[in-house]
């Protein structure tokens, strides 16, 4: 019997051991071997590498058999110069311990083996950190925002660095890590432009004028500082010592130029929005540019061949095909309370004559209060209430104490909340692009008015364009689409051409050597900048 138990225990131990052998072990990817020259090299202690708490750094030095790698003066000083002038790319040199690195460099010839190892690892760690920040930003948007749905960017910084090191192409490494998009490059240009402006601390804040608005030929004490701001930003030319309190024609034209650069109604009327934009200091505008550079590093580095790109604060949608902008549309986006989410996705389907199911937020905040006041509220909007069995419920029988147990569906038609079409794409936020029954909204300057989805001006022209280019075997003329709309029947059409969707957020860029800004409608810029400099 004892032998039996002994054999049983052995079997159990053997089976457990066998089971553990099946557990896969994730191995770190070793970078290629580094090609080292004959400059001074010292061994790096593993304990030193462990102090950085970076698996990436440990793997990097495996490629040099744990020997120092930055003996070459040209390579070393080039890396130091990049870190020192990282502010030219909107980064913070203090993030890369530049002062400590420069102290080591000044006494490089007299460094002990221990100090040389310290210098080498510190330089590698901070250069890789710099490259990573250039590639995908310093901060993680998923940790900052619940409604940002971007593809995660992965970066094998070791392999990139080793290849550039071995081929002696460190000078192109930083450039290759950055976005190739036009907007990103225009943001870098904007950073250079704003650095050419002088200090503006002597220009006082513009106080609210006596009148709500200042119009042509008005007189106001606020105009002195308004003119100083216009001169500072080069929207107006002239001398500061000749400024008056009269709103003359020259100032009027300058105000319109300023308004256009800031996405305001370029009517020359100086109201709250114009004064708010004028009161931004040079430093605040520079911080805004830096915050936008960080956001663009979160976005994909390589845009698709064909795509829709939406800039939420600019209320604009551009269709780009093979690097050519083929259509531009005004849009309406979500309010600050019901923000339009940031999304990278792919277009899938166009739905003509869609129904609209009232979403939970609108049900709670809009529909339920209105229904309690007037039971016919939904019927006037052509919305039918359905119970869990799919049966229509009369408004009089609606249970106001349990509104969530029903579905609320609006029938297709010109006055449907989604208008006469919508475009679907995979996302986790139940949003889409669509027409609207509030078509007058597109005439407004501030179009942060929706409940989160993006509304498109003249959407049927967009549908015609997309479907015509999607399927060469089937034509989609305007007459065909119009006839579908007239039926008021819901029809779904697959988009066969591959279009990416970039629904993004940026409030600054440059154009023809001019700085362009938009109102930060979701109040993201200042908070992001402060986190970047923490």
Concise overview:
With 534 residues, this protein is of the alpha+beta class. It is 39% helix and 14% strand.
What do you see in this structure?
By secondary structure, the chain is α+β, with helices and mostly antiparallel strands. Among the domains are: 46-178, no CATH class; 356-410, no CATH class. The protein is 39% helix and 14% strand. The chain contains 19 helices and 18 strands. α3 packs parallel to α8 (157-166), α6 (113-136) crosses α14 (282-298) and α8 runs antiparallel to α9 (170-176). The radius of gyration is 30 Å and the shape is globular.
Write the layout of secondary structure elements.
Layout: H1 2-21, H2 46-50, H3 55-62, H4 73-84, H5 98-106, H6 113-136, H7 141-144, E1 148-149, H8 157-166, H9 170-176, H10 182-194, H11 223-232, H12 249-261, H13 272-278, H14 282-298, E2 306-311, E3 316-321, E4 324-334, E5 342-346, E6 349-352, E7 356-357, H15 360-373, H16 377-380, E8 383-386, E9 392-393, E10 407-410, E11 421-424, E12 433-434, E13 448-450, E14 454-456, H17 459-470, H18 478-487, E15 491-494, E16 500-504, E17 508-511, E18 514-517, H19 525-532
Parallel strand pairs: 1-5, 2-16, 4-13, 12-14
Antiparallel strand pairs: 2-3, 3-4, 4-14, 5-16, 6-11, 6-15, 7-10, 8-9, 8-10, 11-12, 17-18
Helix pairs in contact: 3-8, 4-6, 6-14, 8-9, 10-14, 14-19
Protein name: L,D-transpeptidase family protein
Family: Belongs to the YkuD family.
Pathway: Cell wall biogenesis; peptidoglycan biosynthesis
